[in-house]
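COMPLEX REQUEST
Ligand: uridine-5'-diphosphate-glucuronic acid
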Amino acid sequence: MKVSIVGTGYVGLTTGSLLAAAGNKVYCIDVDPKKIDIIKEGKAHFYEPGLDEFVNKAISSKNLIPTLDYKEAIPNSEIAIISVGTPTNPDGSLDLSYVFSAAESIIKHMQNGLIIVQKSTVPVGTGREIMKMIEKSGKKASVVSCPEFLSEGSAVFDTFNLDRLVVGSDNKKAMTEVVGLFKSLDQFSKTLDLSKYKEFSEIYKKKTKLNTDIPFEERVLYLGLESAEMVKITANAYLATKISFANSIARICDKVGADSSEVMEGIGRDQRIGRDFLYPGLGWGGGCFPKDTSGLLFLANENGLNFAQLQATISINESQSDYVAAKIQGALNGDLKNRKIGILGLSYKPGTNDTRESPAVKLANKLIKKGAEVTVFDPEAMEEAKSFLAEKIKLADSAKKIFDGSEAVVLATDWPEFLKLNFKDLKSKTKRAVIIDARNKLDKEELKKIGYTYIGIGR
Ligand code: UGA
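STATUS: Structure written out below.
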């Protein structure tokens, strides 16, 4: 099919390059010439494991056409996908200006019969607004909401390994066309070894299921426009609630001497609960959960509803880095002034260089405020984190350097390479052998045996 995708972020560029690699002709539109130039070279303009391979393939085959120009792309397309950013306004609502400006440009250049697919995360009612814009233009087009569920770090794997494809519209025929487009990805995935792309998919899951064995049609949900929009924010709010719940239980475990990892394993075996996304830690961050939870809360309030549960999910998360900072302070006899603390990790989770709302960055800044001397290292996100980090924070050039003279080392982001460090050898570099495992991913017993003081989250 011939497709235009507006916005070349995690969703737009992943979807666009995979669709192009699968044989569709895809125009990738962005307003930023620097991003377009990088894509033209066959690369992503951000770190996302496995993605460069497909961007490169798609550019070489000339199936992926990066452009700044709607005029070149839209009249040649059967489907136009909007996947632009929706940042949070100071009041918690979402800024939809990029979505509406993309819709306006698409409508200006389109011919009758175009299908406009809305993939940006938006409040309920946005699709209907775009329909009104089309009506006003006097042209004819249909609108389909097709929310995105990929996670950063496993964007390629998730896009091929859909557990569900949600489409929502008043127009069944348009939904069927969109389903047909994504079926081409499913067919292409059968020619690939998907296990190559799943390294970061299992970070917060017990085991990644391969969905490609289930017939594609059985994974498609045809919904109403508003329901599809609601699915996306509800899914993120529910997942964020699972994590905040796990963090609350971990705080109780700390008081009663239980091990939160054992408790989560115990409840996760109940199929009604499930083990995924019950990993206590430093709290959730990134470009999605913080934005979507505050967006949904705003929507509830706007409709006169008190969503106390979601408010609690957000508050628990806001206090989680304070909780961890207090644990570090406790481990250092209550005083952080001039104490040397090393932090492993800055990205909001492994597999990405994204530091938006990163709990690791929040923690580093909090420790500096309390007078500590903080050194940080991240394998991918040093550059991105710089503008968010307090000036006094020192940057190390390797994970090993974090241990030099440290009085406490904090595992803030659970990058696989940090879990493989030789803690036994590194102990001699420390001033005090204290590990704060803020992701509950290290071997507690082994570290204690080597002689570290081990402090986890509820364990
Ligand atoms: C999230 C959703 O998982 C995706 O399904 C969704 O498509 C995406 O938002 C989006 O809206 O675009 P993402 O933000 O990439 O994906 O990352 P997650 O893997 O969900 O992690 C989010 C945060 O929660 C991270 O800071 C992570 O460290 C934390 N987390 C996750 C935990 O602390 N514990 C867990 O058990 C799971």
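REMARKS: The chain has a mean pLDDT of 97. The longest helix spans residues 225-256.
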